[in-house]
Amino acid sequence: MTGTIELAKTYQPSDVEGEMALAWSNANAFGADPADADRSNPYCIVIPPPNVTAALHMGHALNNTLQDILIRWRRMCGDNTLWMPGTDHAGIATQTVVEKRVIEEEGRKRTDFGREEFVAKIQAWKDEYEKQITEQLKAMGCSCDWARQRFTMDPICAKAVREAFFQLFEDGLVYRGKRLVNWDPATQTALADDEVEMEEIDGYFWYLKYPLEDGGGFVTVATTRPETMLGDTAVAVNPKDPRAEQLRGKKVRLPIVNRLVPVIEDDYVVLPDQEGDEKARYSSGFLKVTPAHDPNDYEIGQRFDLPVINVMAPDGSISDQYGWPEADFAQGNARFLLGLDRDKARGAVVQWFKENGLLEDTRAYRHSVGHSYRSHVPIEPYLSDQWYVKVTDDRLAGAALRALAKDKSVVGVGNDHGWSGQLHFSPPRYARTFEAWHQNICDWCISRQLWWGHQIPVWSGTGNQAVQFAQGLAGMAGVSICEDQEQSVVYVCLREDDMKLIEALEANTFVRDPDVLDTWFSSGLWPMSTMGWPQDTPELDTWNPGNVLCTAREIITLWVSRMVMMNLYFLDRLPFTDVFVHAMIQDGEGRKMSKSLGNGVDPLDIIHTHGADAMRFTLTQMTTHTQDVRLPVSRDSKTGRNSSDKFDIGRNFANKLWNAARFTLSNFEDEDPTGATKSSDASTGAPDFIDRWMVSRLATAVRDANHALENFEFSQYAQGLYDFFWHDFCDWYIEAVKPTVHHSPGQQKVLVTSLDVVLRLLHPIMPFVSEKLWQRLNQVAPVRGLEGVIVPGGELLIRADWPIAHESLIDPEIDAEFKSLQSWVGAIREVRTSHQIPPRQTVTYCAQVDDQTAALLQRHGHYLKVLANAVTGPVGPKMKDDLEGLSLIGTTQIGDHQIRVYREGETEVGRETERNRLENKIEDIRKSIKTLQGRLGNKGYVDKAPSHLVQQTRDQLASAEREAHVLDEQLRKLG
Fold first, then answer.
1. Which of 27, 49, 371, 747 minimizes the number of CB atoms within 10 Å of its CB?
2. Under DSSP, is residue 449 helix (H, G, I), strand (E, B) or coil?
3. Strand segments (E) across 649-797
4. Among residues 720, 639, 522, 528, which one has the least CA distance to residue 89?
5. Which residue ranges make up each domain of the chain?
6. Do residues 894 and 827 touch, judged by C-beta distance below 8 A?
7. In CATH, what class is 915-975?
8. Using one digit for the tens of pLDDT, what is the confidence trace for 501-542?
9. pTM of the model
10. Regarding the domain delimited by 201-376, which CATH topology (the fold level of the hierarchy) does it fall under?
11. Distances (CA, A) of 486 to 386, 462, 474
């Protein structure tokens, strides 16, 4: 940096942030080089790639602030750091939001465009929001290596996705299967199990009567989904049910469709019991079996070899085009239901049963229903051919489990299974989530019926011609073949797009699968693909495995699991060793922030009103190891934008830092801060004591910051620096040395070194303001430091070294002595405040203390004068009754030590005033004591109130009695 840098009187973030961002950019301060010989220890974080669906929200601001803190910290510690940025194509979410906008603006659906044209529209959306997301991250101060920015569908990532799929296919870990899937009727695609969110809804149990074929009565089934009865292929009864024997071998005639279905016996059916659990209370004892529309029914159907009749179209409407035989309409009357969506069909079926006297009962029922995590509509169990990854294979789920590190703080995790890996979770309780998921995992459905995403690189063909052609490809490099003899289908997977081979495949009746891969497939490769895998790159060798993943709890199964399995399978190593799971931000009422609730806060709004550093500091201070943190939200009446008063904490802290730096720098701009302490310093009342205390606190702050960051205790890191800087440095040290620092090179040396260390410690969390102040500090004091406090300089703070303060500088005796001094200053200040003594008016105090305390007060009389404007009078084992020419202001007590505070004036007037004050206070306390005694004397209260409240009352009484005793003693000594 060149030129003189002047600091404005007030801190304006908008004047600083752009300037500092440009300085970092010009210096390539965020750039990472795997061949950097000066930084041999690699440290890497891959950003959880934001979805290109929309701009970032406050949760992103928190997540990326925490990552940036770690990266800036380790960069200053000398590590070869890489923070890999990028964005995610977010298949379902992005396609859905773009299609919604196109419908609103153009009145057309994606099918009206065709695949290529509609994908181009999504690409344009992606470009717009990727740019906006990048600008937001830069505005937050995120020190990513922006030259390396990746996108999950860019050519580098696409090559990794293609290679991973090919290897899994060739190894038999990708397969095609026909089974019930979680189907989203809104987006018309399959979902994996962990993409389904359970929601409690209010519904009904309808009791439908099915007539027996022989006319001998009815069986009544209970169902929450009467529309699916159109696909029933059996009615089941528990073999232990007394009615089972007389129904054995019989059939019922299915109403509406007139289909005959057998009565079967299966233990899965819940026996009715009005005194039993909820299922038993609602059970009729008969279960309608619909294999195509319920996973449990599907299992029953497999056991009894039942037909599977699908009565719905992909959009959830009733249809006879997807597996419902036309023969059912020969004598039935179900045609009136065709084309109705499932909700309307439900009402129509119930109405039909009611009109035909076959609706026995309707009972309200609250139950849990799976919903799509993207469209938020109820999912439909749907029979479909899909592609799966066999994650149940030991090479995937088993390897992930073995990678989990033992953790004695979480009962059961890893300890009972012999896990000895290096994967750690913080907070540790989330290791249990990871472990339970892999112990109960199901194969992963990876195909999605979308246009936006990585198209599955498999061509399928049927018939002899296709089979013979595929056999001729056997052994060819980059080609893998799988034949499904049962379905008479042969699948050909290509490692790369060979256009000649593709043309030959299509000429031999092969068709490429139109589906795309689940978004999480490409995201699961993120720590590898961003480093250039499958190529053996310097980046891959240096930064995989990485160090930390910072994420939210809801994607432990969706994303963390897949990254661990993929990295272990393809590279035989973890993608990272630590997973930090941060809290979720809610509004002040504990609700999730969302557009629909109108309670979200835009990070750019806070940056505009408070500054990026204020936002970063406040969010970090809030981030405890709890599951959720609350951010009260208020709407600005002028702008109509949401904000939160919480961010005032960060803004006030940034202002305090700015003002303290201006004071510090102004006091030695014309001095040599590296000079030795002059002998004249002793005449000021041994300032060496305050300097030694400040250095001890400085070393403690460095130690505590290191400990907090090493253990992902971000809130403690922020709060610790807040307390140290605001209270120790500003409230006490600066105030104590104000009268002397301008003429004391020794104090200047401590002051400037303290500011240096403060800026270094704060840089990871408040990078903009700390960098700006650092530039001015370098001009005023280019050489600085203290013995034992190592602070080598640097033109840019981002490239400066993290401070080292030897723990030998931490002096518990000095800390204890200063803490005692603080209590005396506080006590005298309290008397001054309660009696409204002007700050400029000097008071005198005397105290009845032991000899050791008297020596401390005499030794530090200078600081009592500076910090409390109090002159030390007689102090010792005996209290002097009066001080000549002075009037008693008030009395107080520290432990057993009695303190009297005086000012100039008539003694008796002050004594009478203090006597009245004490008598009034004693009277108030006696009233409180009487009330508390009455409460504890009430047997009903003691016996019936919660025990903790009773104990609280006892504690309050004891405290009041102690205070009354102290005040009585003070009054007695007044005479």
1. 27
2. coil
3. 789-790
4. 522
5. 13-165+523-641, 201-376, 460-510, 915-975
6. yes
7. mainly alpha
8. 999 999 999 999 999 999 999 999 999 999 999 999 999 999
9. 0.86
10. Isoleucyl-tRNA Synthetase; domain 2 (3.90.740)
11. 16, 11, 20
